[in-house]
Specification:
Strand content: under 5%
Order of helices and strands: HHHHHHH
Number of domains: 1
Helix content: over 70%
Distance between the termini: 23 Å
Low-confidence stretches: none
């Protein structure tokens, strides 16, 4: 596999796998006992969540500049608004819980609304990049596209809570891996058929 393909593979697979690993420690509920871990875990996740948008953008732009721009805009919206969810419901809520819950409902409400905007944008970016792959690799990429889009939707529903949120990250990584394999196989077949 050429170096750019390995970099693309890393950009698509490493962020969801790292997030899944951190997500295995996500407490079920924000309690006084879990508050410090809750807050600190979301601080660790803060630089990881935006990286989810990089892989789909790199993939889409390598196939079609227009889809690359669409995926870039959707990825940017996701990174901004989903980071707001992480900051409010993760870092701020954990900090407020340590300080005995004043304002916790307000923070969770704001975080949920902003996170939903970001999550919908991430689903759109995933779908746009997957559409590019299907256009090039054909229907053999469809299972991977469906798994990645399903994982993105589950991420919107479950965040990174164990087990469903962690499994959403694994689904995203597996879907991208499937699509990359179909792209690689399609490119190899196309180059063999050239005179």
């Amino acid at each position: 596999m050429p170096r750019p393909d390995r970099l693309l593979l890393a950009a698509l697979l490493v962020p969801p796998v790292l997030i899944a690993l951190v997500g295995t420690t996500h407490p079920d509920r924000l309690t006084m006992d879990a508050a410090v871990h809750w807050r600190n875990m979301h601080i660790v996740l803060l630089p990881l969540f935006p990286l989810l948008a990089v892989g789909p953008w790199l993939l889409a732009r390598s196939i079609d500049p227009l889809y690359g721009r669409i995926t870039l805009v959707l990825g940017y919206v996701y990174a901004c608004f989903y980071s707001a969810l992480d900051i409010l419901a993760g870092i701020a809520a954990g900090g407020l819980k340590v300080d005995r819950e004043s304002g916790l409902g307000t923070v969770f409400g704001l975080a949920s609304d902003l996170g939903e905007v970001g999550s919908i944008a991430y689903i759109g970016a995933t779908a746009a990049a997957a559409g590019c792959v299907i256009r090039v690799a054909g229907l053999r990429a469809l299972p991977g596209a469906l798994v990645a889009i399903g994982g993105a939707y589950a991420f919107m529903q479950e965040h990174v809570y164990w087990p469903a949120g962690v499994l959403s990250m694994i689904a995203i990584a597996l879907g991208w891996a499937w699509m990359l394999v179909t792209l690689h196989v399609g490119q190899r077949s196309a180059s063999r058929s050239l005179p």
